[in-house]
Each structure stands twice: as C-alpha cells, then as structure tokens.
Amino acid sequence: MDDVVPAHVERRALEGVAFRTMSARASLFTRLRSLTSRRELLSSLITSDIRIKYKNSALGILWSMLTPGLFLAIYYVVFSVFLNNGYPNFALYLFSGMVVWNMFQTALQSATGVIVYRAGLVKKVAFPREILALANVGASVVYFFIQIGVLVLYLLLLGHAPQWSFLWILPIAFGALYFFTAALAVLTSAITVYMRDMEHFIVIILQLWFFMSPIVYSYEDSIAPRLHSHGVAWLYFLNPITLIILTFQRVFYVATTVLSTKPPHSVLHMLPTWPMSTYFYLNISLLGLMILLFLFAEVIFGRLERNFESEL
Amino acid sequence: MSTVINVEGVSKQFKIHHGRHQSLKERMLHPKAGSTEIFNALADISFRVDTNETVGLIGHNGSGKSTLLKCICGVLQPTSGQIRLRGSLAALLELGAGFQTELSGRDNVYLYGAMLGFSRKKIDGIFDDVVAFSEIGQFIDTQVKFYSSGMYVRLAFAVAVNVDPDILVVDEVLAVGDERFQAKCIDRIRTFQDEGRSILLVTHNADQVRSICDRAIVLEHGVMIADGPTHDSLRIFREHLMESATVSDQSGLMSSINFDSVTTPTGSFEVRSGAGLHFDVNITSQTAYSGNFLMEIFTRGGLLVSRSDAKGSPVNLLPGRNCVGIDLPQIPLLDGIYDVNIGIVDPHGSNVIAWREQAASIQVTYDGREGGLVELGAAIRQQ
C-alpha cells in the first residue's frame, strides 16, 4: 500500500489524542453534542428514507404531492360541496392547515416503529439511536417544503397575496412545529420498543388529533363561542398544533372575517383577529416550550435506551 | 506504544424477562405475569489494547465475547466500569447490518460509512478502493437486494477496512465469504498490523487466532480467565474446554482416563535435528477403553508443525496403568522449542476423551545452515 508511511505518522500522533469514554452515562449535553456531530449520518438517512419510499413507484416523489393533494380534494368535496360549509376559498384554507398537519402526521407515523423495525441495526452499530426517528422527521420536513412550494404555486395561480406583514412569523411557527414533531417522534419511537401497541394506538390518536385541530373547520366559526361562554377556550389551545395551524392560515388564507358563500351570506369568523404582536408572542413562547419538550424527550429517550438490548 | 482501548472493571447485567407480555392488553390482563432474572454477562473485565497489537478474544458461545465487543463499540452500555478509546474505530459486528436492501451498492457504501462515523468527503476519497476491494464491479449501482450473500459481505468488509480506522473490531465475520476472499481479508488484516493499527478479533477458530493474534483473551461465563501470549491463552482455553466437558460428561469416561507423565528413555527432551526421539506416555485408566490417539506438535509461536494419530490401529486401554509409545524416527526440525499436545479421542474422532496441552516440550538443536522450520537438505548447484 502506498499510504504505509503516512499511516505510521498518523498512528504515532495518537499518543496526543485524548481518550474518549464509551461507557459514561450520557448527560443531556453529551447527547446533544453527539447528535450534532452525526449530522452527516442524519442527512444520509433522510436521503435514503426518501429514496426507499419512492424507489419502486412509477411516479416517485410526485406521490409526496399527490397523496396530500388527493386528500385535500376529498376534504374539499365532503366539507365544501356535500356539507356546504359556506367557507369562501375553502381549498386554500384547507391547504394552509394541511401542510402543517401532513408534516406532523407523516413524521409521527413513520418514526413510531422505526427503532423496532431497525432492531438489527440498533443492536449492531453504535450511533445515537434517536437519529433514526429524527431522520423520519427530516424526511417529512422535505415533503413539507415540497408542499409549501405547491402552495406558493397555487397562490400564484389564484393571484392571492399572502399576508406579507405576518410572513416573518412563519419560521418561528415552523420551528415550534419541528421541535414538537421531533420530541413526539423521539418519545414514541422509544416507547414502542417497550409497548408494541403504540404503533396501532398512534393511528387512532392521530385521527382524533386531526379533528381536534382547525383544519377542515374554522375554530372561530364552530366551537369558539361555546368554549368562550364556559371560559375554557384555553383547553383548545393545549394542542400546540392549533396555534401553528392558525398562524399558517393567517399568513396564507389571510382573511379573518368573511362572508359566507351560501345564502343569506352571513358574516363568518374564520380566524382569530389577534394583532401581529399576539401571533408573535404566542409563537415565540410556543417555540421555547417545544424546545424544552424536545430536551425532555431526549432525556427520556436516554433512560429508555438503556434496556433496548433486552427488549428488541 | 500507547494504549488505544482501555477497559476498566467492566460488568454487564441483563434483565431477562420470562413470559412477559409485549402488548398492552396482555400486560393489563396479567400485570404480574412472568418474572425477571438478572443475568451477569460480564463480570469485572479489565484489559488494555495498545497500538500495533492484535488481540484475539476467544470463548465459547455465551461466554460474553460479543457483549464485551458491543460495549467497546458503544452499542451497549456497561452496567459498571468504563471503557475508554483513542483514535477512530471501525466495528464489524455483523457485516452489512446497516445495509438498506432497497438501495444500490453505491448508496449503501455512503450510508454505511456515515453509520461508522465517517464523512461523505472521506467516503468519496476511498470509494474506488472500496469497489475494487469488494470485487463488486459493475453491480455497484444495482440494488443490494439482488446481491448474493457473498457480495453483500464483501462490500461491507470493504467499507470497514478502507475507511482507515485506528482500531478495527471484527466479530466472527471472517468465517464468511469464499476461501479466496477470506485469504484477502486476512491479508488486509496483516497490512493493518504492519501499519501499526490495533485489531480486536473475536473468533471460534483457534487456528486463526494462532496465526493472526499476538495476544489472546479468554472469556468464560463472563469472566476473563486468561490474558496473555496467544499460545498460553489457547492452552488455558483448551484446558477449560476439557474441564467443562468432563463436568458435563454423563458416562464419567472423561474423568476416568488420566495422562500421568510423558517420559523418554534417557530422561532428556533435547534432540539434535535429524535424530529420532521416543516418548512413553503413561496413562492411568479406570475402565477399559478403545480409542484413537492424537499428537500435535506446535512451535512456540503457535504454528502447527504436525498432527498425527494412531493411523487406524486403536489404542486399547485396560483398567490400571497403561503405556503408549510414540516413536519419532527422525525430527527434521530446526533450532527451537516445540510443544507436544497429546490426547485420546473416540473411534469416530468426534469426541475428545482426554487431552493434555503441552504434555512435553522438545528442545531441538541444529547447527546446519538452513533457516526456517524444517531441514529439507536442499542441494543448490549450477548445471
């Protein structure tokens, strides 16, 4: 081999290299550091996830737009045509909420069983295991941006301008969405190792969750008055997804108060009429909370991880 | 010489669940079902591996070898004690464990490299070497699910040895692949040794340990029972094998046959090269037994010089004292000390009934001009 000599030089340099401890109970800080040092692995896993998912299908990655598009069409027909909810421009309203929901749902559904599915890898190769769940979240972020791209095209087609002045709040809302999704993905992936029911459970939970979020209906127009009359409106906002969806709708759908498309064309309250500052403060506090939740999920994962070997 | 792997007082316990239910319904219905047992997989293991050292880890199934290896690679966390490493490590606990069968060989090389902790840039640099070493050729862009198991293994091995690790950890993977590829792997391991890298090798194959390793560690039931030069460790390993076989021997046959001593007519084990030597092996037997007699001669370096048996004529042991003669009419060996192992095996040759490692050591003196192991008496002249 040609590199024998340089290899020797490198070997000798080992004497100066510090020892690293393989066995220390990893603190939260070291966990996070090992996560960031394995960014390359994360991006490799994300790419391979996406490739595998669409490898053998004729339409390939188009499915990441087709599936949500078809769902959107179904909801549109059911709620706007059959049930005649009277929301003007309902497709856009649906679209703005569903980009958020799709990312959350896709990530959670794929991440929940990932540690169990890849047990062979988890038991044989050393790497921070939550990366597997985070790779699923990462893949759904990619789909999210593809869908945002389609949404922008749709806006152009409609000639509908977003609320430009609110646009800068979107990255904050997206940050909150990312950390919330990541925290739950990390948690459920570890819990599934101990309780395989989690995988079936999550499907039901997500279905329920979907209807508890203002995606196919407007919160202000439906249950807000009743909740307010009992003084329990805060209950609805315990769902972190709600605020994120409202923010996306506020930016893309824009209108807070509209006229119904069905006679007698009454006034509909689609979105909260909060000023920009309220959106900002709510979103930034949510982001803070979600980062804390993610750190908490990391700690719990670290605890649960110790017995993976005997459970897998 | 500096230490690259430092294992200090490592213990590992597993919780083993008996009959516990995995699903929520079953757990709610039978909350107390099953029991949990603590199993000590490793008990207080300490050793170091230096640069430029190849260490073999031997022990039979369930001795804790793989657990120890997993702890070293960071796949498992020890219950107590600590393991410290220096330099980069490439571990082959299972070849191709990280492969995604739906992806092409090329994609898998990058993914596997990332899993072993190496950057994309680094993989770019070694990609051609990996493909060349693996002999996958044009199939590198084929999905891995269409690979033969041999191709699969070759690709994984090629990645691990080409990423230029300071420490290579290999678990029984050399047993796969055809003979030619195995030879190639061993060859690469030797290159690694020449380059001063450290290798930790787990194997069942005593011959492999003997030929590759400088040092061997023997584990038994999670306890380290030997750590020293390969031939010493292998001797201890074999003795332990015999002991545990004796304990589990139902017929009691094994404990009834004993090698008492090995003697020569002159009392001396020194011999001039080319001369002959006769041994008398004194055996005490409590039963009558008819079996085959085996003899092995090893160099101190652990190389098998010769293995021979009674050539079809069984040794008939009678109750009481027996004597078996071994005649070596001519020993063409060169200078050195050679260890003799003797044993009695059953007529089918499948079970060892009695075994003695290093039953005798022969000291050969030689004053000729040949070098190596044996004197061939080669004559070289111009014609």
**Biggest β-sheet of chain B, characterized?**
6 strands, mixed
Report the order of strands and helices of chain B: EHEEHEEHHHEHEHEEHHEEEEEEEEE
Calculate the terminal CA-CA distance of chain B, rounded to whole Å: 51 Å
Number of domains of chain A: 1
Structural class of chain B: alpha/beta
DSSP E strands of chain B, number: 18
User: Any idea what the radius of gyration of chain A is?
Assistant: 23 Å
- Indicate the mean pLDDT of chain B: 84
- Detail the poorly predicted runs of chain A: 1-10
Strand arrangement within the widest β-sheet of chain B reads: 5-6-7-3-8-9
Distance linking N and C termini of chain A: 42 Å
CATH topology annotation of the largest domain in chain B = Rossmann fold
Cα gyration radius of chain B (Å): 26 Å
Overall shape of chain A? elongated
The total tally of domains of chain B equals 2
The first-level CATH class of the largest domain in chain B is given as Alpha Beta
Main sheet attributes: strand count, strand direction, barrel closure of chain A:
2 strands, antiparallel
Strand content of chain A: under 5%
Largest interface: A-B, 43 and 56 residues
Fourth-tier CATH superfamily name of the largest domain in chain B? P-loop containing nucleotide triphosphate hydrolases
